[in-house]
Design brief:
The strands form three sheets. The protein has a 26-stranded parallel beta sheet that branches. The chain has a two-stranded parallel sheet with strand order 1-30. The protein has helices spanning 7-16, 91-104, 165-168, 405-411, 417-423; strands spanning 50-51, 83-87, 110-114, 117-118, 133-134, 145-149, 156-157, 170-173, 176-181, 184-193, 196-212, 217-227, 238-242, 248-254, 257-258, 274-278, 285-291, 294-296, 303-305, 308-314, 317-319, 341-345, 351-357, 360-362, 364-366, 368-374, 377-378, 387-388, 391-392, 401-402. The chain has one domain (7-68, 175-423). It is mostly beta strands.
Length: 427
C-alpha cells in the first residue's frame, strides 16, 4: 500500500458518495486442484434462488477496485521519470527495454510505455512454460520498473482465450523488481512463477495463478486485479500452487474482484474461485492478505486452501452458495451448487493463524483456525477464534437466496469497462 494517497483518497471519497453507496451508514453484513471434491455439491431439486432481504451498504466503502490501491515502490504514471521508453506491444521488445533501462538507470524511476495494440500469443501459462517476461532481475532497486500502456487501460489487450491457456497463456517467470500495470488480459490466463518482488495491478484477467516449483515465490502483489466475467469452464479462477519443496510467502490481494467459474452439470472436476495447494515436497503457503476484495463462489469452493498459514481477511467479502447468482446466474447445463463452501480447508490440514476484520463471510467455514476476528459478519455457525468473535446475521443464513441487486450495487459495483475506465483514469 502507498503511504501517501492524496488524489486517490479524494477520488474514492467522491465515488463512494454517489447514491448507490448511500444506502445506509450502519455496519454492513459484513465487509467484508488437488483437493477432495465435497460430495455435497449436487444439483438441488429446485435450483431457482429466491431474493434475500434488502441489505445496508458497507459503511466503510465497497469491496473491489476503486483506483485507491497502488503497488509498493512503484512510480505512478504521472511522476517525473528518469527514463521513459516507448515500445510496441511485443514481449521480447519489452524484455529487452527493461534490461537496457536498468543498466542505464540502476536506481532511477523507469517507465516502459507500451503503445496501443494487441500482444501476440504467449508460450503458455503452465507450470513449466517459458515466460513472456523471463529471468529479469530488477530486484534491490529503490523503485520497481513500471510497465504500463502508454494510452491507458484498454488500449493494450491479450490474444487468445482461457481455453488456450496451456499453450498460449502469459507467464511471468523468474522476474523481480517489476510492476505490470494497466493491461487488459480479460480473455486470457496469466501465471506468475518463481518470482519475487513483482506486481500485477489495475488489470483485467481471465485466470490468474501463482506457482512456485523451481524457486521460492515472495513479495507478489495483485493490486486491483479484476476477473469480472463468469466463465463456464471446469477450472479454478485463481490458484496458488507449490511443488518440489518450494514455498509461496507474502502475497497481497488488494482491491481484487473475482467472478465465478461454473462447471458442466455432471462434471467431476473440482472448480474453485481460489485454491491454494501443494502437489509435492514440504513447502508451504504463508502470509496471504486479502484486502478490499470480493470473491464469488464457483461450482466448488470460494477459498479452498491446504498447507496454508497466516491468512488475513481484511475488509473483504466472500459470497458462497447461490447468494451470488443474482449477479452471476447459473446457465442451463451447468452444475448448481447445493453446498455453500466459502472458506474451506481439510480438517486434517486446516488453515492456521487466520485473522478476519471488517469482512463479510456468507456461507460455511470449515478447516480454518482463526487467531482473531473483529467486526466481521458471518451468515451462520462461525468457528470460535482465539481472540474476539464473529457476528452472526441469520438474514444471510439461507444458501439458496440470491443477494438483492441493491446489495451488489452498494457493496461491489460491477467493474465493467465504463467503471474501470473511470476509476483507472490516472493511467
Amino acid at each position: 500500500m502507498k503511504s501517501e494517497w492524496g488524489r486517490r483518497d479524494v477520488f474514492r471519497a467522491a465515488m463512494l458518495a454517489v447514491p448507490a453507496f448511500a444506502v445506509a451508514q450502519t455496519m454492513m453484513p459484513g465487509r467484508a486442484s488437488a483437493t477432495t471434491i465435497d460430495p455435497s455439491c449436487e444439483v438441488p431439486a429446485d435450483p431457482v434462488p429466491t431474493p434475500a432481504p434488502e441489505a445496508p451498504a458497507s459503511a466503510t466503502g465497497a469491496y473491489g477496485p476503486a483506483g485507491s490501491h497502488w503497488p509498493a515502490r512503484t512510480p505512478e504514471p504521472g511522476d517525473a521519470f528518469d527514463l521513459v521508453v516507448e515500445v510496441e506491444p511485443n514481449w521480447w521488445t519489452i524484455q529487452n527495454a527493461i534490461a537496457d533501462a536498468i543498466q542505464q538507470q540502476p536506481q532511477g524511476k523507469i517507465k516502459i510505455a507500451v503503445k496501443p495494440g494487441v500482444f501476440d500469443y504467449g508460450y503458455g501459462a503452465g507450470s513449466t512454460d517459458y515466460g513472456v517476461l523471463h529471468g529479469i532481475n530488477a530486484g534491490g532497486r529503490t523503485w520497481r520498473v513500471l510497465v504500463v500502456p502508454r494510452d491507458g487501460w484498454g488500449t493494450v489487450t491479450a490474444s487468445g482465450t482461457i481455453a488456450q491457456a496451456s499453450s498460449r497463456g502469459y507467464a511471468f517467470v523468474s522476474v523481480s523488481g517489476i510492476s505490470v500495470v494497466g493491461f487488459d488480459f480479460s480473455g486470457q490466463a496469466v501465471l506468475v512463477r518463481d518470482a519475487q518482488d513483482f506486481a500485477l495491478a489495475w488489470s483485467t484477467v481471465g485466470q490468474l495463478n501463482i506457482t512456485a516449483n523451481n524457486a521460492n515465490t515472495s513479495g507478489v502483489e495483485f493490486v486491483e486485479c479484476v476477473l469480472p466475467n463468469q466463465v463456464d469452464d471446469d477450472t479454478d479462477r485463481m490458484a496458488f500452487r507449490i511443488a518440489n519443496n518450494y514455498s509461496i510467502d507474502g502475497v497481497s490481494l488488494l482491491g481484487c474482484y473475482v467472478a465465478p467459474a461454473y462447471k458442466a452439470a455432471g462434471s467431476s472436476s473440482h472448480c474453485d474461485t481460489f485454491q491454494a495447494s501443494r502437489s509435492s515436497g514440504s513447502g508451504g503457503i504463508r502470509n496471504l492478505r486479502f484486502e478490499d476484495s470480493v470473491f464469488f463462489q464457483s461450482s466448488s469452493q470460494v477459498l479452498m486452501m491446504e498447507r496454508t498459514s497466516g491468512v488475513s481477511l481484511a475488509h473483504s467479502a466472500f459470497i458462497g452458495g447461490l447468494r451470488g447468482t443474482g449477479r452471476y446466474p447459473i446457465g442451463a447445463g451447468r452444475h448448481v451448487m447445493t453446498a455453500q463452501n466459502t472458506l474451506w480447508g481439510k480438517t486434517t490440514d486446516p488453515v492456521t493463524n487466520a485473522t478476519a476484520s471488517d469482512s463479510f463471510i456468507a456461507g460455511s467455514i470449515r478447516g480454518w483456525n482463526f487467531a482473531s476476528a473483529s467486526n466481521t459478519v458471518v451468515s451462520h455457525n462461525p468457528p470460535t477464534p482465539a481472540s474476539g468473535e464473529f457476528t452472526v446475521d441469520d438474514a444471510y443464513a439461507a444458501a439458496d437466496q440470491a443477494l438483492p441487486q441493491s446489495w451488489y450495487d452498494a457493496n461491489c459495483p460491477m467493474p465493467d469497462a465504463a467503471r474501470l475506465a473511470t476509476i483507472w483514469a490516472a493511467l
